[in-house]
């Protein structure tokens, strides 16, 4: 149903926005259904964390007791005594380093593939996505020999392999982002006299920022949660949080320590995911009058 405007009254953009929001406002029943489904999904994902939360504050939990028989923080004390904080910081820096390298590389590759500037684009795409098809153990064992003969330090070798493992995720995510990217904004900025650096920082990056954030999040998860590459290539010289969790989980009677370390491993991805959920709803606009900007006809104010 069209919005009725009295003759002679000028329609402002605010009026159009208000009318559009009124027509597209969801029905109460549909909103209640979405809220209910979201609540059920949240409960479904939170249920596995309940035993971890209980074990993290339990000094003893004997069968068949429903709740811990002795409460305490021995698990937290043991995790801190075994270097939990330095290991946490090391894992966090490794995830950030992987994201910092794999995200721009994936964005450059995705832009070139999307814009059709790469010969044999299908072959290049297959090579970039190959780490997803190959088992991690097989790929790592083959590359480890090459890195050892090249005398690459263990931390640098781990970082290189994790960047290669994260590239498929960043390339695919950024290809989706560039598929919806309109190059007319950049062309308009150049027409208006913007320099290449200005187009990059003030036009291009703000428009693809949500895609870059999602790609960086996936790359961070690869570096943060890796176990196979770190244990095989690092050779014990680079101890990360997954390695510490695995070492305690292999023993008996370390349930409280494993619970504390596991909960610690959940915190950074969860915080980044919440931040990504808020940031992903905001698509920054370029700071110039784009090609779709309205222009007043001659003689109008």
Automatic annotation (TrEMBL):
One GO biological process term: transmembrane transport
Transmembrane segments: 35-58, 92-114, 126-148, 154-172, 227-250, 256-277
Any Pfam family matching the protein: BPD_transp_1
Limits of the ABC transmembrane type-1 domain: 88-276
Listed Gene3D superfamilies: MetI-like (1.10.3720.10)
One term under GO cellular component: plasma membrane
Keyword Cell membrane attached: yes
Subcellular location: Cell inner membrane; Cell membrane
Keywords: Cell inner membrane, Cell membrane, Membrane, Transmembrane, Transmembrane helix, Transport
Assigned protein family: Belongs to the binding-protein-dependent transport system permease family.
Record protein name field: Putative spermidine/putrescine transport system permease protein
């Amino acid at each position: 149903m069209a919005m009725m405007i009295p003759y002679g009254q000028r329609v402002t953009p605010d009026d159009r926005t208000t009318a559009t929001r009124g027509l597209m406002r969801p029905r109460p029943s549909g909103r209640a259904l979405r809220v209910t489904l979201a609540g059920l999904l949240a409960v479904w994902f939170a249920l596995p964390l309940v035993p971890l939360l209980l074990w993290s504050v339990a000094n003893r939990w004997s069968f068949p007791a429903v709740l811990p028989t002795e409460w305490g923080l021995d698990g937290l004390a043991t995790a801190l005594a075994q270097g939990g904080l330095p290991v946490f910081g090391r894992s966090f820096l490794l995830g950030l380093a992987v994201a910092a390298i794999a995200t721009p590389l994936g964005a450059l590759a995705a832009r070139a593939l999307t814009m059709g500037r790469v010969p044999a684009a299908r072959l290049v795409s297959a090579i970039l996505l190959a780490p997803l098809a190959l088992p991690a153990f097989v790929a790592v064992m083959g590359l480890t020999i090459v890195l050892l003969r090249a005398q690459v330090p263990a931390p640098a070798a781990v970082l290189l392999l994790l960047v290669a493992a994260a590239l498929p995720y960043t390339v695919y995510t950024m290809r989706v982002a560039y598929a919806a990217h309109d190059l007319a904004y950049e062309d308009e900025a150049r027409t208006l006299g913007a320099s290449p650096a200005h187009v990059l920082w003030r036009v291009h990056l703000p428009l693809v920022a949500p895609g870059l954030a999602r790609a960086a999040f996936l790359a961070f998860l690869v570096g943060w949660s890796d176990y196979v590459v770190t244990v095989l290539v690092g050779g014990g010289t680079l101890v990360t949080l997954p390695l510490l969790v695995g070492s305690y989980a292999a023993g008996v009677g370390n349930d409280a320590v494993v619970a504390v370390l596991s909960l610690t491993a959940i915190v950074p991805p969860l915080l980044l995911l919440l931040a990504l959920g808020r940031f992903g709803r905001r698509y920054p606009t370029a700071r110039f009058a784009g090609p779709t900007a309205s222009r007043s006809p001659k003689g109008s104010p």
